[in-house]
Amino acid sequence: MEKKPFYITTPIYYPSAKLHIGHAYCTTIADAIARFKRLAGYDVFFLTGSDEHGQKIQQTAEGAGVTPIQYVDKIVAGFRNLWKELHISHDDFIRTTEERHQRVVQEIFRRIYEKGDIYKGSYKGLYCTPCESYWTEHQLDENGCCPDCHRPVQEVSEEAYFFKMSKYADKVLAYIEENPEFIQPVSRRNEMINFIKQGLEDLCISRTSFDWGIPVPTDPKHVIYVWFDALSNYLTPIGFLDDEAKFGKYWPADVHLVGKEIVRFHSIIWPCILMALDLPLPKKVYGHGWLIVDGDKMSKSKGNVVDPLALIEEFSADAIRYFLLREINLGQDGNFSRDALITRINSDLANDLGNLLHRTLNMIGKFQGGSLLPPAGESAVDASLKADAMDTVKAYEEEMEAMQLSSAIKKVWAFVSRANKYIDETAPWVLAKDPGKKQELANTMYHLAESLRIISVLISPYMPVTAERIWKQLGLSEDFSKVQLSDIREWGGTPGDLKVGLPEQLFPRIEVEKDEAAPVKQEKPAKKEKQGKAEHEEITIEDFSKIHLRVVRVLAAEPVPKTEKLLKLTVDLGDEQREIVSGIAQHYAPEDLVGKNVVMVINLKPAKIRGIVSHGMVLAASHGDGMKLLSVDMPVGSRVR
Ligand code: MSP
User: Fold this and answer.
1) Which atom of ligand 1 is nearest to the CA of 297?
2) Ranges of residues in the chain whose predicted pLDDT is under 70
3) Deepest in the core among 83, 338, 388, 489, taking most CB within 10 A?
């Protein structure tokens, strides 16, 4: 049977700097989806690449004393290496400096020009070079800077070609409104609808003040605007212009996965270009959230960049992938912290998964000489494990199809815990002492091995190396790269006489020097005299502006077990949800907090409190024994200054 095609793309990255863990996050998501789709039997085409033209690159190369191509060649080699180290399974890597791409961009320009949707005019306006974006006066932020990156914009005035975007505004709006699946998550969709409703102006698509770009075919003193150039990359490797069958198979794309700040380019400008070309529009543009460090988006200028290669070297690619995909809900921002990463590695990977494999293989070795014995009959607890396994596969598939990667892997982990509990419930070491329980023991060992076979397939989109290691330690002979989801939709794929391997450690535990229960401000106030001194020490307005205070809503509250003072709160920041631990249990019942709008410090360094990572702190006033949270009747997300 012919496989169904599935075409997924990441953005093509600017080689203006080294890639950081935020870029790796975006590519890892796409990779996990691509791997899942391959498992599910699709014919996947997964594209990533580099976006190498534009003024910013030309300036950076000049600053470095090299030609632009020398500059980008070196950086792009670094991209390829990072994707290799992170086990990214892309089918093609497109560079916008390649001849195959240049041809496509010029042809697209020519076709739209001939249609009359590109015209020559003169541009006078504002341009943000770091973002390669045009802005109008009314779109600037309150300081007159770029609304995306908040850096100064430049006045530009030059002869230029324009693309008649205004002609397509109504059509794109109708498409977005008629296709609720097109822009996801829904918050991004609403933003885009509002953006179009404010009016779409024609887009300036050429520049003459620099030459690092693809020349306009009929007027080569102009180079084509980088976004027009970059977006066209999605058509180049799937056969546009030279392989009609291939192009017909993969276009329209199933998913353009992009960061939330570039949804606008993908869901408005790109559809207008495609409409002008009479090509169908992509099925989905998914805007994922940002990976933030201590409450701030990662960027070189802020000096908070986390290097993915160093992390991979220290913790392994699979551990990083697992953390990114499990810890962050796709549409929301998520915090990256080393402490949270180590917690996940120790508790989920070394402990839950590592122990399940180790205990299982150890017992098969010790009690049955390293071989399974064919199962016969089934106890109630065996049947319930089997039913849980099948339910997990089903729920996982549903979540993965909906791109809910975090929920899907949480379901797998619930099953890992279930299987560990099954060992305690069946107590194989007791069965092993009773010769009359030989079959019961054989059944138990079989159920554990089969559970691990299923788990290894389910985790393979997240942790491809670990998944295969489990498969091999189990002694399964089938080539892991050929395994499909259909192989685990039914229980019983493990051969009844399988000879298993020796257990090898999957993830070593990471020892942390710091005390687990890092103090929280509310729990251990600083010494009185220190407090007094601090109170009288003057700070500048700049000092104060480092503290980001925001109105947040409490969505859920529950006591932290075995503590008297602590509550775990789930709060809504407006654009993401977080968990924090607060020492207010003696002053508030959890149910009284739900729905309250309180003030929170959102850029406080995360701290682990009783095993829970707290991402921020709510503010409270205290007097004597009394304490009240600062509560404000303002919408969630309001900045407090
Ligand atoms: N070159 C354009 C994309 C053109 S696509 C036709 C571009 N490049 S970029 O290198 O600046 O960003 C690439 C992607 O990385 C974007 O989707 C962006 O959102 C993502 N990220 C950059 N920093 C990020 C985080 N800190 N967290 C998550 N994703 C982040 O835009």
Assistant:
1) 26
2) 17, 294-295, 300-301, 513-537, 542, 575
3) 83
